[in-house]
Amino acid sequence: KSIIPPFKNIYGRGAVPARETKLTISFCLDGSHKHMLRDQDEPVGKVLARIVANMAKNQGKGKKKKKKKQEGSDAAQSAAEVSLLFGEDPVEESVLNAEAWKDGAVLCVGDVRYEVLRNAPTFTTAELPRSLMAGFPVCPRLQLEFGNMDDCEFTWLKETPGAGSGENWAEVGSGRVFVPSNEDIGSKLRLRCLPKEGTRCGLVKELESEGAIEAGPGTCTFDTRHLFTQQQAQWPELRVVSYNILADIYAQTELSKMVLYPYCAPYALELDYRINLIRKELCGYNADLLCLQEVDKGVFDESLSSAMDAFGFDGVFRIKEKQHEGLATFYRRSRFRLLSSHDLVLSEALGSDSLHSDLLQKLSSNSDLKEKVFQRSTSLQVSILQDLLQPDRSLCVANTHLYWHPTGGNVRLVQMGVALTHLGHVISAVSPGAALVFCGDFNSTPPSGVCELLTHSSLPQSHSDWLSSGPDHHCPMDLASPFPPLLSACGNPPYTNYVGGFKGCLDYIYIQPDHMEVAQVIPLPSHEEVTTYKALPSVSHPSDHIALVCDLLWRPPTDRPTQ
């Protein structure tokens, strides 16, 4: 008497778009995973015949190996009993694959029955980080097809000592993110991922860490700051972060290791180590909006996107031309919706957009400075966000990383002139009334021309920054901003960048005081914390910059000062 086992699943991945011509059929039989790529317009009978042939071939190999002719013959006979049913009626062999393999159909292979799931939820990418540290969130890299990440189920297990030589695993958590404790040090991790879309389930994906959980660095520079950000901001407030996280392509150079950061332990400059600290720091701020600079493309794609998605954020990335790093803006999706993006390369816009024709004409009077400006690939990332809690409110979020050279004040002035003109145009043309929040590493100290232009709305041609790179590049001009004076929300701290050879305030969050006011500035780490390991970066801080964090408050329209 044959006993039919509980239903298994067969997963058909045929494309939703009609133009796709292939269909993948996946199922597991006798511990072996089968993946068959077939034409959508092929008769299903050919697929069934192929399954029969493969079964006979495999059973034939088993027969030779075990020398059990009778068992092999019986298995081959069982393998030949392959059919596709729909409502217990056989599907005609002439029916095309595109129609035959659909939800509700059943594939019978001998006594084994498979329920057909068309386009079942599937993790196309599922990876654990290489480095795991106690006290730091572990965020798998996940990409899901035909599913809803919020419906998926995640089970975390850790390796535990047990009797005998077999492996022992104990369940230690659920959810998409797991934070190991000190008790987990020395253990490996496993993660079971069940992809789902509502009640529809796909194949479980099981991951195992390459190495064991290691001890963390102890107290980090941001731990005290997190005490001020344990709760999310409540409307009408929102929390904003601006942070240069130090690109890996710069941290790993010989210049960085031997000259810029010789005081930093080499392992603390490794990306696998730093990304643990970055994830924990960003998560702990409970921000609504994060503007990051020096984000490696690989870091955004392989680490930050999945982690921030798990923390409740959507994000956009803008690569810096000719580089492998760029700008990233993340926004809490329960709070904001991205309406549009208006990114640009500042030098390209200067040369091609008539908005900047006056500035270009003035700059052209000095060919040396003009050439220097046009050699730069500096980008401006611009995102228009709608506040979902008050849909009539919107933000124009700008994020940039200006030219770095100490003598490049004149270049930065031109870059800022282009940026402000572009931002004024975007707001007036796309989102009138939007509040500007301008974040970034401006590579400019508070007395600089860039900061004066932002805070005074104009800059005279007599400013010393026009001579920053010497008389050969002197091109004095008056600059005007389309915005009333902006406010540096975090003020002018003594420093936001602290390395062995320099310390100074280079990073800013500028706002329009007629739209928003500052509710709270999260204190920066103390000087003792910053210098515990001499300077930044260090084993307790992942970047040479310090994040700026503040809570902003929407002004009621009636409270806005008149212009």
Report on this model:
- Residues 121-214 form the 2',5'-phosphodiesterase 12-like N-terminal domain.
- Its cofactor is Mg(2+).
- Residues 242-545 form the Endonuclease/exonuclease/phosphatase domain.
- GO terms for molecular function: metal ion binding; poly(A)-specific ribonuclease activity.
- This protein is of the alpha+beta class.
- It is 24% helix and 31% strand.
- A hairpin with a 2-residue loop joins strand 13 (196-197) and strand 14.
Q: What's the gist of this structure?
A:
By secondary structure, the chain is of the alpha+beta class. Helix 1 (44-66) runs antiparallel to helix 2.
State the major sheet: 7 strands, mixed
SS elements, strand count: 32
Distance between the first and last residues' Cα: 89 Å
Which ranges are low-confidence, i.e. pLDDT below 50, for 5 or more consecutive residues?
1-7, 67-79
Order the strands across the largest sheet as they lie in space: 3-2-1-7-6-4-5
Helix content: 10-25%
Rough outline: elongated
Oligomer: single chain
Overall pLDDT level:
91
Output the radius of gyration: 30 Å
The helix tally amounts to 14
Beta-strand share of residues: 25-35%
What class do helices, strands and sheet pairing give?
alpha+beta
Subcellular location: Mitochondrion matrix
Family: Belongs to the CCR4/nocturin family.
Domain 2',5'-phosphodiesterase 12-like N-terminal: 121-214
GO molecular function: metal ion binding; poly(A)-specific ribonuclease activity
